[in-house]
Every structure is written in C-alpha cells, then in structure tokens.
Amino acid sequence: MRLPILSDLRDLDDGPRRFARFTAWNVLSWQCLVGPAMVLFARHIEMPPAWVGVLLAALPFAQLTVLLTAPLVDRYGPKRVMLTTWFIRNVLMCAVFAMPLALAYGGNRLGWYLLLASTIAFCVSRAIGAGAWFPWLHEILPGRQRASYFSTEGSLLHIMSVLVILVQALILRGDPGLNQYLFIYALGVTAGFVSLVSLALVPGGASSTATLSLRESFHMQRTAWRDRGFTAFIAVAMLGYASLTWLGASYIMFLRDGLGYTSQTIMILTALGSVAVLATIRYWGRHATVHGSPATMLRCLFGHALVAAGFVMLPASSAWLPVVLVPLLLAAFSLGAGYSIAAHGALLDRIQEIARVGYTNTWIAGIAIALGLTPILAGFVINWLPEHGFQVCFLISTLTGLVAVTLGRHLAHEPAPVAISEPIPEDA
C-alpha cells in the first residue's frame, strides 16, 4: 500500500513531479537558512526586534528585482537562470560562517551587520532567479493538475519542514551556542547545493525563440497592470498576505521574549504547526477544486483573522495558556497554508499567456511589498511598545484580514478570466 502523498506525486505528469521534488530539497535549505532558526539566531546575538523585522523583510523586498529580470529569463531561459542564481545564493550565504570572527573582533553589532549582509546577498541572488520560477512552472504544469500539484507540493514541503525543524530542535536543545546555529546553516547550504542536482533534472525551461527587451518586458507588465480584474485580485492578495505576516513575523519573538519559551520548545511548536499543515493540506486542495480558489482564499483568511484575535486575548501567564496557545498556533499554520495554496491556484488561473512573465512578475512584486513592509512595521511596533507591541501586531493582523475579506467578496463570484490574444493597448 502506498502513502497518499506518494500516490498523488506519481499521479502528476513528469515535469511537475520533478519540480515538486526540487522544491522539497529547496525547503530543507530554506528552513535552515531563512526560517525560524534565523530569527532565534538573530535574537541569540541580541539583534533588536526592529533589526529582526528588517532581516525578515530582506527576502520579500529583494523580490522586487523581478521587475527587471524578464529579459534575462527570456534570453537565457528559466532553467539556466535558476540554476545559476541558486548556485550563487548558496555561495554567498557561506559568509555567515565568519560570524565567530565578527563577534570576536567587532562585538554583537558587527555580527548583526554580517547576518544582515549575508542574508540580503542570499535573498537578492535568489530573487534574480525567482522571476523564472512561475514561468517555468506555468510551462510544465497542465491546468487540470494545478490544484492537485499545489496540495501535493504543500504536503511534501511540510513533511520536509517537520523533519528539518525537529532536527533543529534537537540541535538547539538546552542552552544553544553559536556553533549549534552555524551547524544549522551548514545543513542549509549543503541542502541548497543538493537541490541544484534535482533542479537540473526538471524538463523545459528553455530560452525563448524571440529576444525580449527591457522595454518590452515593462510593456508586458503594463498589460498585467491594465487588467483590472488582475490588479483587484493582487490588491486583495496583498492585504491577505500582510494579515498573515503581522502574526507570522511576530509569533516567534512573542514565544521567546513575551512568554519566555526556549529555542527548542519554539522549534517543536513550529514543527507541530507543519504537522497541522500536512494534515489539512489535501483538504484545502480539494476545497479549492470544488469551491474555487478565490472562495477558499477568503474563507482561510477569515479564519486566520479570528485566530489572530485569539492571540490578542492570550493571557501573559496562566495554567491554561498552553491549552489555548497550541490550538491557535496550529490553526494559524493550517489556515495560512490554505490561503497560500488557493492564492497561487487563483494566480495561475488569471495569467494570460501573451504576457506570462509580466503577470507573474507583477504578482511577485506586489506580494513582495506586502511581505516586506509588514515585518519591518511589526519590528518597530514591538520596539516602540515593549509592553503591548505583540498584542498590537496581532490586532492589526485581525483587522487587515477582515478588511481583505470584505474587499475581496466579489472574487468568489466573478466568472473565470477571458483569455486575451494580444497585449491590452496602452490607451485602454
């Protein structure tokens, strides 16, 4: 008898199946290099919450470079671009291994600069290649398999996340020191190089027969911007991701600094969150197939807003705190994953083939702004309001989610987008 996840994986076509395997290795690297352990490492070297917010914003803000990379993807092909940039990002992250020297000769502040610099270098290199991700996936993923692919991919990613976070919890047991955190980084860099082998086996991703200029790429992006249905969808999605991030960017610091939990306990709770995602990911995929991706987005976001409201009302200390905290945390993970699956499915349904790169780059840039600005604001709120900053972040998460659900109600009832055969005129 085969496990459901293996059955679902084998039911995919060859291209999507290989891409899903690559993303499984990629998430292992991701969790080690820019996951929850990074936040704990930053606080271990006493980086202030506001700086941690900037650290968390590095990746999404770096994604804005995709607005300039369409000609690169078109000329060299998604496969070559991703292989090159994914290799460079792993090399650049190796700078973090100079942390012992930085701390010894420059103190914590130099350590903060080194962690920021290595993380930003990693993120920028990754972002240059990220513009190739969706065009390549759009090329090899049939429409009939989109919901199935994203739920299967989500299951794989969270299996890997559970395993790697549990390993990290073992590494960070007790009172972890610098060597334990650097060992996690070593695992992440190694997994990053292994993922390159898997990525090389994915079919497709060839360069375009026609060379795209930077001016033409901006014209393709204008085509997406002038698609009113698409821009309305992007606006709602941005608000939704901002709502998720107000909670997601602050919960680790809340557990560590607000509740006094150890690094190992935080990693175990994060692993339990990934287990919750794994247990519900197939449900969200089926829900999106039956009820539509936009409706699933809004339902998940409404549920997440209620969860964030629950965090607002958590007592600082109580015998009942773990009884309430754990279910809220698990629900936040599950609903956030359901929202992301549905959002990506809705995105692929709205991409017009004539301006594929323009649509995907517009999506990446819009979501990058939401994911980049929010953790910076959350970090400053926590700095400015040390007594109640976490609760303010959770309240803003609730209100932003409810606003997005209200503004996005039309998405659940509108007809499927009509394909266009040529770019929308500039005077449209």
Q: Key features?
A:
mainly alpha, 428 residues, single chain, 18 helices, globular
What does this structure look like?
It is a single chain. With 428 residues, the protein is an all-alpha fold. The chain is built from 18 helices and no strands. It has helices at residues 4-11, 14-34, 36-44, 49-62, 70-76, 78-93, 99-130, 133-140, 146-171, 178-200, 214-225, 228-248, 251-258, 263-291, 293-312, 321-350, 356-384, 389-407. Helix 2 runs parallel beside helix 9 (146-171) and helix 12 (228-248) packs parallel to helix 17 (356-384). Mean pLDDT is 85; it is low at 415-428.
How many helices?
A: 18
Order of helices and strands: HHHHHHHHHHHHHHHHHH
Q: Please provide the count of β strands.
A: 0
Distance between the termini: 56 Å
Mean pLDDT: 85
**What's the Cα radius of gyration?**
21 Å
Q: Rough shape?
A: globular
| Helix-and-strand structural type | mainly alpha
The share of residues in helices is over 70%
Residue fraction in strands:
under 5%
Note the main sheet: none
Q: Ranges with pLDDT <50 over ≥5 residues?
A: 415-428
